[in-house]
Design brief:
This protein is of the alpha/beta class. It has helices spanning 91-105, 134-137, 158-168, 179-194, 221-240, 258-267, 288-299, 312-315, 332-347, 359-363, 369-387, 407-410, 422-431, 440-450; strands at residues 10-11, 17-18, 40-42, 60-63, 69-70, 78-83, 110-114, 130-131, 172-177, 200-205, 245-251, 272-274, 301-307, 352-356, 390-391, 393-398, 401-406. Strand 9 (172-177), helix 4 and strand 10 form a beta-alpha-beta unit.
Length: 454
C-alpha cells in the first residue's frame, strides 16, 4: 500500500482561529474531544507475525472530526453545497446534516445550494442559487431524490465553474457525488489552487453501487439492498406460485456486484447471482441455462439476480458514454429474459418468467435508518474538514472511523467483489450455484480473469 498510494491530506494553510465548538482535550471528563491532525487510522487490518515495519505518514488516513483551531472565520464564510450524478437514497440527509452543522455548530449563516449539479454554476443554464437554513432543510430527509436537483455532466467546464465560485465569493464547496463528480471536483480544486484562491473542496462520496475504493461503504448502499430484497421476495413468490416459475431481478451494479451479492445473502431466496466480476456462459453444457434447467427439474422454480453490468462484453457493441463519462450499457435483464424464454420455447417446456427491474424505485427512495445515521455523520465530518481548511479530500469510513481520504487516491481505482474473497464464498454457499458457469472451451480464460487482482 505504501508503495502505491499517498494518503497525505492537503490544506489551505495554518489554522489559527479558535473553533466556536466547545469540546475537550482531556480523556475521562465525559466531554467529547477535539480531533488533532496527529490522529490516524490504518487502512489494512490484516496482520503478519514478525517484525513490524515503521509506519509513514503517507500510509495512514487522517481522522475526521472537529479541530480546536480552524482556518475560516465563521462569520465570513459563504458555503456551497452541490449534488451531482444520478439519484441515491440519502442525498437529502447529507444536505440537511451539512446545513445544520454549519449553522448551529459554527454559526455560518451564508449557505447556498447549487441547483442541478455543476450545471448550476454555468451562466447559460440560468439556474438560481438556493439559500439554505435549518428551517428549509429540517424535513427533507423524509423524502427521496435531491432537494437541490441533480444532473450529469458540466464538471469539465472547470474555468467557468471557478469563475462562478469567485463571483459568489464561496469559501468552501461540499460536493455530494460519485466517481465522475469527484474527478470533476479535483479538477476544480486544482484550478482553484492555480489561481491562488482559498476555497476548500470537500467531497462526500455517493455511489449506490458501493464501488468507491478504500472506504467501507458508500451511503445509499444499505437502502438499496433493503429495497432490492423486497423485489426478490416478489419475484420468489411469483416463481413459487407458477409452473416452472422463474423470477429474474436486475439490480444496480455497473462494474461491481455488491448489491446483488448482499441482496442474495439477505433474502435467502436467490438461486443464481450474476455479477460483472464473475464470468459466465449463458448457453452450453455448464452455462446458466443448463444449470437453470437442473434447478427447475429439482425444485420447479428459480430466482435469478443479475447486476446491470453483467454480460456487457456481449451487449456493449459500441463504446458510448453518458454525460458523466459512464459506459452506456445494454439491458442485461431483457437480454437474459429473451434468451431463457427462447430456449425453453424451443424445447417445448412451459415456463413462467417474471422480470423485475426496481432500479429507479430504489434510487429515488428515502434513506433507511441505517443510511440516515451514516449520512448525518458524513455531513458533519465534511463541515469539520472544510472549516479546518482541508481540501481535495473525501469523507469516508475506514475501520469504523471517519477519515479524510485524498480525492486523487479515491478516484484512482474502483472497488470490486473479490471472486476468491469471503463475500463471494458466502454467496455461493447461500445460492448453491456452481463456482463457475463456464464451458470447457472458456474455462481457462475464466480462471485467468479470476486470478487478476480486483
Amino acid at each position: 500500500m505504501s508503495e502505491e498510494y499517498d494518503f497525505t491530506v492537503e490544506d489551505l494553510g495554518k489554522c489559527a482561529i479558535d473553533s466556536p465548538i466547545s469540546l475537550s482535550k482531556t480523556l475521562g471528563d465525559f466531554i467529547a474531544n477535539y480531533v488533532s491532525d496527529n490522529e490516524f487510522v490504518r487502512y489494512g487490518t490484516e496482520a503478519h507475525l514478525g517484525e513490524q515495519a515503521p509506519i509513514a505518514r503517507k500510509d495512514v488516513f487522517e481522522k475526521a472530526g472537529p479541530r480546536e483551531k480552524i482556518y475560516f472565520s465563521p462569520q465570513h464564510v459563504h458555503a456551497g453545497i452541490i449534488t451531482c450524478g444520478g439519484l441515491c437514497p440519502g442525498l437529502n440527509d447529507v444536505i440537511r446534516s451539512v446545513v445544520r452543522c454549519l449553522w448551529y455548530r459554527y454559526g455560518v449563516k451564508r449557505i447556498s445550494g447549487i441547483r442541478y449539479g455543476y450545471k448550476g454554476f454555468l451562466p447559460e443554464y440560468k439556474f438560481d442559487i438556493k439559500t439554505l437554513d435549518p428551517d428549509i432543510v429540517d424535513d427533507i430527509h423524509k423524502i427521496g431524490g435531491s432537494f437541490l436537483g441533480t444532473a450529469r455532466g458540466g464538471g469539465k467546464q472547470v474555468s467557468e465553474i471557478v469563475d462562478a465560485m469567485e463571483r459568489l465569493n464561496l469559501n468552501m464547496l461540499i460536493t455530494i457525488g460519485g466517481d465522475g463528480t469527484q474527478r470533476g471536483s479535483l479538477d476544480i480544486a486544482n484550478e482553484i489552487e492555480k489561481r491562488k484562491l482559498k476555497i476548500a473542496m470537500i467531497g462526500v462520496p455517493k455511489t449506490i453501487d458501493n464501488d468507491f475504493s478504500f472506504i467501507q461503504k458508500s451511503f445509499g448502499f444499505d437502502t438499496a439492498v433493503v429495497k432490492a430484497v423486497v423485489a426478490v421476495s416478489a419475484a420468489h413468490m411469483e416463481a413459487h406460485s407458477q409452473i416452472n416459475g422463474i423470477g429474474l431481478v436486475k439490480v444496480m451494479g455497473r462494474e461491481s456486484g455488491f448489491i446483488a451479492a448482499h441482496t442474495a445473502l439477505a433474502s435467502h431466496e436467490v438461486n443464481f447471482v450474476l455479477i460483472p466480476e464473475i464470468p459466465f456462459d449463458i448457453e452450453g453444457p455448464n452455462g446458466l441455462i443448463a444449470n437453470l434447467e437442473k434447478r427447475l427439474e429439482k425444485r420447479h422454480h428459480a430466482v435469478i439476480v443479475v447486476a446491470e453490468g453483467a454480460c456487457q462484453d456481449i451487449l456493449a457493441k459500441e463504446m458510448k458514454t453518458d454525460a458523466s463519462g459512464n459506459l452506456k450499457m445494454g439491458d442485461v435483464g431483457l437480454y437474459l429474459k429473451e434468451k431463457i424464454q427462447a430456449h425453453f420455447d424451443k424445447k417445448g417446456v412451459e415456463i413462467n418468467l417474471k422480470y423485475i427491474d426496481p432500479s429507479y424505485l430504489i434510487r429515488s427512495s428515502p434513506a433507511e435508518a441505517i443510511d440516515s445515521v451514516y449520512c448525518e455523520r458524513l455531513g458533519n465530518s465534511a463541515v469539520h474538514a472544510a472549516m479546518a481548511g482541508k481540501t481535495k479530500v473525501l469523507i469516508g469510513l475506514v475501520n469504523n472511523e471517519f477519515v479524510h481520504l485524498p480525492m486523487k487516491v479515491a478516484v484512482s481505482r474502483r472497488n470490486h467483489v473479490d471472486p476468491e474473497g469471503s463475500l463471494w464464498r458466502d454467496v455461493l454457499e447461500a445460492t448453491h450455484q456452481p463456482i463457475l458457469m463456464v464451458n470447457s472451451d472458456t474455462l481457462s480464460a475464466a480462471l485467468g480473469m479470476q486470478k487478476q487482482p480486483s
